[in-house]
Amino acid sequence: xxxxxxxxxxxxxxxxxxxxxxxxxxxxxxxxxxxxxxxxxxxxxxxxxxxxxxxxxxxxxxxxxxxxxxxxxxxxxxxxxxxxxxxxxxxxxxxxxxxxxxxxxxxxxxxxxxxxxxxxxxxxxxxxxxxxxxxxxxxxxxxxxxxxxxxxxxxxxxxxxxxxxxxxxxxxxxxxxxxxxxxxxxxxxxxxxxxxxxxxxxxxxxxxxxxxxxxxxxxxxxxxxxxxxxxxxxxxxxxxxxxxxxxxxxxxxxxxxxxxxxxxxxxxxxxxxxxxxxxxxxxxxxxxxxxxxxxxxxxxxxxxxxxxxxxxxxxxxxxxxxxxxxxxxxxxxxxxxxxxxxxxxxxxxxxxxxxxxxxx
Length: 360
What we know:
Strands 4-5-6-7-3-2-1-8-9-10-12-11 form a 12-stranded antiparallel β-sheet, with helices on both faces. Mean pLDDT is 75; it is low at 1-71, 296-312 and 354-360. The radius of gyration is 21 Å and the shape is globular. The chain has helices spanning 3-6, 9-22, 74-84, 96-100, 103-115, 119-127, 131-134, 199-209, 241-254, 279-294, 314-318, 338-345, and strands spanning 91-94, 135-141, 144-149, 169-171, 175-180, 183-188, 192-198, 225-229, 257-265, 268-276, 322-326, 329-337. Strand 9 (257-265) and strand 10 form a beta hairpin. With 360 residues, the chain is an alpha+beta fold. It folds into 2 domains: 3-25 and 63-209, no CATH class; 225-349, no CATH class. The protein has 12 helices and 12 strands. The protein is 32% helix and 21% strand. The longest helix has 16 residues, at 279-294.
């Protein structure tokens, strides 16, 4: 993954992956396991609102009264949490409605819509579904996706790109399955979309929502946040080669976890990550972050990019990377002002689709 897009992968992951799984064109994920009820809290719920950008403009908390309607329906929000209450190595929740109310979120949507070509238009014509307009929240656990939104008018039976009508199969009190072979999607009421997934996986999610099955004892997530294995760091941040091998081995041996949260306002984006671990983990990660800020490793390269010092805007963003030990691990924060976010995303982020001017 090139660093021009990897830096903001946490922000773009859900928006970019949304279209793919809704088109049912993914490799089937491994089957999840199950267990007991979801717990409250966890993740990075305690992360404070954007603390400040030092030399760059300080964003103010987003207040958009028009978003209130998107969060009024408590049963639908609880349904997302119940569907997510399954064990998994990777879990992510994205507050799509709040992101869409910010300049970075709108830029990300422009990129995803442009990259999807005319498929979104064809999907709207077939079924009336507009994912970037109708989805307010989504979550992913090891490839199994759950979305919450205003979905009552969508013709799910006509969703598949083949044009084949898919007969709905009622399940439970409010569930409907739309299967093509062994895979498909499911809906619950008019606000929840599940999948794609296998039949048993979708039915189990509806069972958890409707209370016929207990969920796994998993951390609760809120806003835009996630929990990942720490080695996934290398998919997002170009850690210097000479440190990557030792870090990767250490993470796997000690099962190091990574929790992250993304906060966005019109002024920019803040990504905060916390790694659990002992003093050696803190030492290794501190060295990696410092090498990253310096711009090159001992061999003059970072991650998967070409040799040599990094050009702006990436180098400019690294000056905003901070890290410090915390109880039980280390926390790192990267702040990106809006101009840098747009440059990192590339030309697709601009409103007219043309090149984004260089930031001063």
